[in-house]
Amino acid sequence: MTTIANYLVNLLHLPGWVSAWFVALMAALVIFGFMMGVVLVLIWLLRKIFGFMQIRLGPMMHGPQGIFQTPADALKLLAKEDVIPDRADKWVFVIAPLVVFVPAYMVYVVIPFGEGSRFIAKDLNIGILYIAAISSMAVIGIIMAGWASENKYSLLGALRGAAQLVSYEVPMALAFMGPVILAGSLSMQSIVKAQTGGFWHWHFLQPWGLGLLGFLLMITAALAETNQVPFDLPEAESELVAGYNTEYSGMKFGLFFMAEFANTFTLCAITTTLFLGGWHSPFPHFLDGGWWSLLWFLGKSGFLVFVFMWIRATYPRVRVDQLMEFAWKGLIPVGLFYLIAVAFFAVVV
Predict the structure, then answer these.
(1) Is the Cα dihedral 211, 214, 216, 218 positive or negative?
(2) Which of 12, 156, 181, 299 is most buried, taking the most CB atoms under 10 A from its CB?
């Protein structure tokens, strides 16, 4: 992209500083396009996987195997009337979906989809810290949506969502720190490079089962962070109609929907980066590097997405008290033990 930007700047005789802005704009558009593609594919896969596990077909009418069903639903959301309740706080109601969607979009900036600078928008030396800070902003949007809707079910769903996200961010941050300690860096690319030769953080580099413990801790917290079953309390249809987005329609509802599915892939990609070797091939020095690195990264992340959907189709929803007790009395103590044990291993060995 830098080469293309420099060529256009020279061709049009523009100032040099325009090139940096042009590269940033191109990267933003590429990330947005990739994000939209991921969301469309994940929605279709969710319906087909649910259909398979529930012994039915799923979408079949629109296109081969129903592949056009999700684009048709997206067009329907775009065409639907945008209704704002009379008693709603209008500007907060309008801004809330953007506050939820933008962090889900911005996290993609530091994810290394493959080996080399061409597969990452920006390799920040504080990549993990950036992810933890940006992802926590979604809580604000959820509270804004529930409060501004002037609906008791929306407010209750927002309070549940805020409590859940704040609680499960703690064990997720503790899971982050294990690979960071072993790699000695907060950079996402550096963490992947530390897992060369098939020695991935999920098991091999961490003895006594610590790698597997951190991996399971990350997966469990990620399920709660994305409101997936069995932790879908903020959107419990049988209790709260649709949770904090009950009063939303049209594209505002679509933004909430896109953010949820984008976050699902994002957290799977982060887990792949931290624990599953990122872009590295499972077979050292075989089909590794170049475009193969992109294929391996997407394959690992896609497998984790399938696991998330498998869990979603299998387990029942837990109660609110069970949800909070599991975080504060279960995952957080386990996460603290994991962090201390990994730090001890890093110092001693």
Answers:
(1) negative
(2) 156
Q: At what angle do helices 152-183 and 250-275 cross, to 10 degrees?
A: 20
Lowest average pLDDT, out of 12-26, 54-68, 85-99, goes to 12-26
Which run of H or E residues covers position 164? helix 152-183
Tens-place pLDDT, residues 73-87: 888 888 888 888 888
The mean pLDDT of 283-290, rounded to a whole number, is 76
Q: Please, what is the Cα angle at 107 between 124 and 93, to 5 degrees?
A: 140
* Residue pair 339/206 in contact by the 8 Å Cβ criterion: no
Q: CB atoms < 10 A from the CB of 231, how many?
A: 24
Share of the chain above pLDDT 90, in %: 33
What is the rounded end-to-end Cα distance, in angstroms, of the chain?
43
Q: Are 259 and 38 in contact (CB under 8 A)?
A: no
Q: How far is CA 319 from the centre of its chain?
A: 24
Residue written as token pair 């493959």: 114
The single-letter DSSP state of residue 314 is T
